[in-house]
Amino acid sequence: MRERRYAAPRRQPRAAGPEPAQPEPLPNLRSLALIARLAGIEASPDGLAGRFATPGLDIESAAMVRALAELGLAPAVRQGGWAELAREPMPLLAQLRDGSLLPVVEAQGATLRLVRGGELHLEPRDAFLAEWTGRWIAAGGPPWGDAGHTVAAVERALAICTAGTEMGAPASGGKHAGAGEEGAG
To answer: What pLDDT does 81 receive?
Structure first.
C-alpha cells in the first residue's frame, strides 16, 4: 500500500502596505470603560477585556454588573418604563434587544442623549423605545452632577477613548483599573 503525502498549500507573499487595523473595541466593553472613567477609574476597553470578558467576545449584562462592582461601584439592575428611566441618576447603561448596553447620559421629554458607536448622539425617545428592553443598569457611581456637567464629562472621556485603545488619565483623577489590577491605586 502506498502512503499518501499531504502537501501544505503554498503561502502567497503578503502585499506590502499598512498593517491591518486593530479591531474596534467591543461596544459593551467600551461602555464599561466609559462608565469607569466617569467614576474616576482609569480604564481601557482592552484592559477591561482581559479582566472581565471571554477573549473575542463582548461582555454581557450579568458580567457587566459584576465588573462594575469589582471596579468599586454599586450597580443595580432595574426595570421600568421611560418615566422611571428618566428619573434615574445618569449616566446609566440601557439594555437593547440585541444585548448591547448603551450609556445614557440624559433622558428628558421626547429625546435622550446616549453613546452609540463611540459617539454622543441626541436620539428621539420613540426610536430608542423601539429597541430598548425596559431594563437598565444603574452604575452606582459618585454623584454625576447636572446633565450639562455629565455631557461635558462624557465628551471628554469619549475623546480619550477614540484617541486610541489605551486611555490616558482618569476623568476625575481617580483609580486605575488595568489588566490584572484590583482597581485601587
So the answer is: 95
DSSP three-state, residue 51: helix
Q: Which three cell numbers stand for residue 6?
A: 499531504
Sign of the alpha-carbon torsion through 60, 64, 66, 70: positive
How large is the C-alpha radius of gyration of the chain?
20
Pairwise pLDDT comparison (140 vs 34), residue with the higher score:
34
**Amino acid identity for residue 84 in this structure:** E
CA 40 to CA 169: how far, in whole Å? 9
Q: In the structure grid, which three cell numbers stand for residue 61, read together? A: 449584562
List the single range of 80-94, 116-130, 161-175 with lowest mean pLDDT: 161-175
Phi, psi of 107 (to 5 degrees): -135, 110
Q: Compute the residue count for the chain.
A: 185
> Within a 13 Å sphere around the CA of 164, how many CA atoms are in the beta-carbon half?
5
In one-letter notation, the amino acid at residue 106 is: E
* Angle made by CA atoms 99, 115, 129, in degrees to the nearest 5: 55
Please classify residue 102 by burial: count the beta carbons closer than 10 Å to its beta carbon, then call 0-12 exposed, 13-18 middle and 19+ buried. buried
**The three grid cell numbers given for residue 118, joined into one nine-digit string:** 463611540
* pLDDT for position 138: 93
DSSP H or E run through 38: helix 27-38
